[in-house]
Amino acid sequence: MQAAILNEKKQLELRDLPRPKIVPGGVLIKVVASGLCGADLKMIDKGHKALTYPRVLGHEITGIIVESETKEFNKGDRVQIAPGIVCGECYFCQQGITNHCQEIEIFGFTVDGGFREYIAIPEKAIKAGVLNIIPDNLSFSEAVFAEPLACCINGLELAQFTENESVLIIGAGPIGCLKAMLAKSYGAKKIILADKLAKRLDFAASLELDSLINVEEKAWHDIVNKATDGRGVDLIVLASSHVSVDHSLTGLLNKRGKILLFSGFADGKENLEIDGNLFHYGEMALIGAYGCTVKQNKKALKLMAKQKIAVKKLITDQISLNEIFKGVEKARNKETIKVIIKENEGGNG
Ligand SMILES: [Zn+2]
Ligand SMILES: [Zn+2]
């Protein structure tokens, strides 16, 4: 069985591994499609806070159950695997904040993930709720978006974003686009998507948002202000690790405006320049968001099944596991939006 393993930073390798065996109470899954995520690129190029080596990458995983030793799931079930295996018992799990589980294991981070042909899911993970039946009207490739969409849901929930609000999303990569689509499904008052790459903005034109802005243009702040009648936006989402939070950015916020720190910051960008008085008098807030809960993953699948978010649009590349180096290179050069890796053929794709 082929697998893409990261031995250490910058050491990605395709290797032949023995096919995993089903464990008592678990299931064996033939992986059909998985998503290449910005976090994978980060792991490959720079390492990642939550990663241990060597690791089969891939945390956006879908497939078909080929063997089952649990009553809840049957052979032939089409499933999406939520990556977080949570304990269900710690303080955070009890609060429903499962992404902060103190005992969390994550496929593709601390246990081997989905960039391989087969994956065995242990009983503990099934009990933690990682397996989700893919609704009939969603393909495997679409269901891959459940996890990233769930992370976007987590962000907008933490920001308490509502339909009466305007949002400026900085970064028109896969996550920025997904966030914009999610905000649209909320019925957001105004959605502005910004990036410095014209090709990304060209792609985003198909999302039919209120405004697309190239931040390389000198007057881009004026465009945001004009679009919000001079008041500024209610929410700024940082969907790029290269944005500087400084006075010019916070100057774009409406009263009670919020900045959602969705991406980790690139080295040197992590210290933010904030005018405390602006935030005090303007009742503004800075909010972090990382990962998603078990519940949000299920919510994301439901939202897609209701055809509220047409994620298919975001798939620019479908490659086989053999072509992973090419896919990584293209994604690194930002020539893609979403890369789907097809490990095996399966039903309706
Ligand atoms: Zn991801
Ligand atoms: Zn826990």
UniProtKB/TrEMBL annotation:
Q: What PANTHER family does the entry give?
A: L-THREONINE 3-DEHYDROGENASE
Q: Any idea what this protein is called?
A: Alcohol dehydrogenase GroES domain protein
Instruction: Classify the source by domain of life.
Output: Bacteria
Xref: InterPro entries: ADH-like_C, ADH-like_N, GroES-like_sf, NAD(P)-bd_dom_sf, Zn_alcohol_dh
Gene Ontology molecular function: oxidoreductase activity
Q: Cross-referenced Gene3D superfamilies, in alphabetical order?
A: Medium-chain alcohol dehydrogenases, catalytic domain (3.90.180.10), NAD(P)-binding Rossmann-like Domain (3.40.50.720)
Matches recorded under Pfam families: ADH_N, ADH_zinc_N
The segment(s) forming the Alcohol dehydrogenase-like N-terminal domain are 24-125
Q: What is the lineage of its organism?
A: Bacteria, Bacillati, Bacillota, Clostridia, Halanaerobiales
User: What are the UniProt keywords, alphabetically?
Assistant: Oxidoreductase
- Ranges for domain Alcohol dehydrogenase-like C-terminal: 174-305
